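Record 1 of the preview.
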Amino acid sequence: MSILIKGVRLNGETTDIFIEGNRITEIGDRLGVEAEEVISGDGMAAIPSFVNGHTHAAMTLLRGYADDMPLKEWLETKIWVIEAHMTEEDVYWGAKLACLEMIKTGTTFFNDMYWHWQGTARAVQEMGIRGAISAVFIDLFNAQKAGEQIALNEELYAAREAFGPRVIFTLGPHAIYTVSEEALQWCAAFARAKGLLIHFHLAESEEETNRCLADHGTRPVRYLEQIGFLGPHLIACHCVWLNDEDMDILKAHEVRVVHNPTSNMKLAVGGVFPYPQLRKRGLITALGTDGCASNNNLDMLESAKIASLLQKFHTGDPVVMPAPEALEMITTQGARAFGLESGLIEKGRWGDIALVDLNHPQLTPHFHLASDLIYAANGSCIDTLICDGRILMRGGRVEGEEEIMAKARERAFDLVKRAAG
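->
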């Protein structure tokens, strides 16, 4: 498959972009090449597609189901209760809806942790985007459950290749308050042996920190260092309750961190992601939406705007996390966090590209693209999306979107009915 984008704005200049297979092979003015698909870039700007660093994709089915509740009560009395009734088919349609929403708003990669791994993997395989997918690993400090979870993850790892290269198997131990020390150590060892990433909730709440101090005599980050869990394989999500020593330890172990501003604000976790301190230390920092039960959407441009404004408000510094940095967090930094060959539009990289409609009202009069995208626009300004050599959306339309929304709506209400008994 070959795709030629003609006369598109890229870094302020008008140019052509030629994608052959799944990689950018030529960038230049009026390329004399033929392609199977030709896209007019007139009135468009080409940008790297977005990376969503932390999701629970199938929670699209729970969007708006349990809002305005404290985190612990929300998890224990609503979310975990209804999730116990989810089937693989529920997860499949919920994840397809998530993929649809991400495609419509410019995202081609997401990092996911949820139940029924195969359901999400099937959705990613069919929808054409990329996903780092982990099964939730929770043993609640029960040795039998830990053994079952280990066996499940070994089975899923062995079966991963059946879903193709866009589905990346990862490990998903939930958090220190739901996973035993022995299981965390197994995850770290298995990840190192197999070259896998670990998707993990870290330092999300003050309660988590206080409980770790009571149980282990130290803070979560130091505890994880002591048990050998930290390393560049770790994608640590939230990281709100960090002190200077915690951040130094994360840097020493090259941990990648993911900020989830909308979820943290909605669930009132009581702290703010220490972005200036993490950036000063040079940690790779990405952005995520979290699940749709705590955001309630998967729009990365909206999350980037909220992240930037939250940092300005919290620090009292109007220049902290400027628009270009916020945009980098969902493109370049996100790609670095997950080892992706995307994040920049350059020859040799994956041709994972979003085309922005510059005639969109929110992009008018259009002085600076980064500022317009972060502070003015949202995902609705994305006209076309390309991933892995395939056009996933054109003219704002995705093939089969009506059926996906109808089936997801049907599964969501049926799930609530089943859970109610």
